Amino acid sequence: MSLQKIISAKDVTTGYKLALIFAFLAFIIMSAAIMYGFVIGDFSGEGGYMLTIPWGQVSLIDVYIGFFFICGWVLYREATFLKALPWLIMLMIFGNATAGLYIFLALLRGNGNWKAFWLGSNA
Predict the structure, then answer these.
(1) Residue 120's closest CA among 73, 75, 78, 88?
(2) Per the structure, how many domains does the chain have?
C-alpha cells in the first residue's frame, strides 16, 4: 500500500498514521542535524571533548543503548542476517536518522497493520 493510500484509508488507525508522519519527520530532522554537524562542526575535536565530560559520556551511552534496542528489533524483523546487516551498519554510522527511515519503511510495508509492522517477516 502506498503512503497516500495508508493516510487516506479509513481502516488504518490515527495512531498508525501519526507514527508514519513522526518517523518521516524524525528521518528528515536527524538527517539535517547530522549534515549540520559534519559541515559546521569538528567531529574529531568536539567528539573527543564530549568523551571527557560526564553528560557527554551519559549521552553517548544512552544513544548506543538505543541503537542496540533498534538493532535487535531489525534483526528480529528481517528474514535473514544479510538483509539486516546494511541497516545495522547504517544505524551505527548515521544513528537515529537511519532508525527514522527504517521505521517509516516498516510502517509502509505494514500496510496499516501493527502486527506486520512490529514482526516483519515473522508476522
Answers:
(1) 78
(2) 1
